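This entry is listed as follows:

___
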Amino acid sequence: MKFLKSIAVLGLMAFSLVPAFAQEAVIRKNLAEKFPAFAKIDEVTKTPMSGLYEVRLGFDIFYTDEQGNYLLQGHLLDVKTRKNLTEERIGKLSAVDFEKLPLGDAVKIVRGDGKRKLAVFEDPNCGYCKRFERDLTSIDNITVYLFLYPVLGPDSISKSRDIWCAKDRAKSWNDWMLRNATPVTAECNIAAIKRNRDFGQKYNITGTPTLIFANGSRTPGAVSAQEVEKMLVSAKAP
C-alpha cells in the first residue's frame, strides 16, 4: 500500500511538471517566430507575479505573458518588500566568483595592510577610470587587482602593453592615471592582456571601470570613494 502511494505521488508530481514545460515551449516558440533574436533564449522562468514570465537572453532580462504575445523590458518591483526583483536577478547573474579571477594576470597594488580586496577592469585611456583612480587613492588598507582591459582602440592596447611590461607595473599605472606621465615604451609577453579581454567577454564586462568585490558582486562605472567604502564593508558581511 505504501509503495502504491509513492507511485501515486510521483505520478502527480510528473503531471504537475507537464504544464510548466508546455508553457515554456509555447513562450519560446511564439517569441522566436516574432523576433529572430529570441531563437536562442537561455532561460524561461515564472515570476512571483501571476501570469508573468521572465525571459533571459544572456544578461538581458525581459518579461512576457503565458503565450509570449507581449514583451516588456524594464524593472519588476515587489511593492510589499520594496525590492527591485529585476536588479536582484541581474546582480546574481553578473556575479563573479572572486576566487576564480585570474589574479596572476592583474597588476597588484597594495595600500596599508591590504586586507580588503577589490578587482578592477580598466582601460588606460578611459576618462572615467582616471576619475575613479583619483578617488581610489583616498581608500586605505586595500589590495587592488588591476586588470588591464584595453577596449577603446589601438592606443589603449599600446599603453596597456607598456604598463604591463614596465619594471614596476603599479608605478607605471599610477604615473599615467594620476600624473599623466606617458608610460615608457616596452616589449614583453602580453598574453595576459588578451586573457583579460577573453575573460571580460565571457563575463559580459562591456565598460570600464568595472569593479568586482570579494563577495562576487560587481559594479560598473566610476563610483565615488564613499560608495566603494560601503561596498567593501558589504562584501565582508556574512
Notes: Confidence is low (pLDDT under 50) at residues 1-18. The two ends are 47 Å apart (CA to CA).
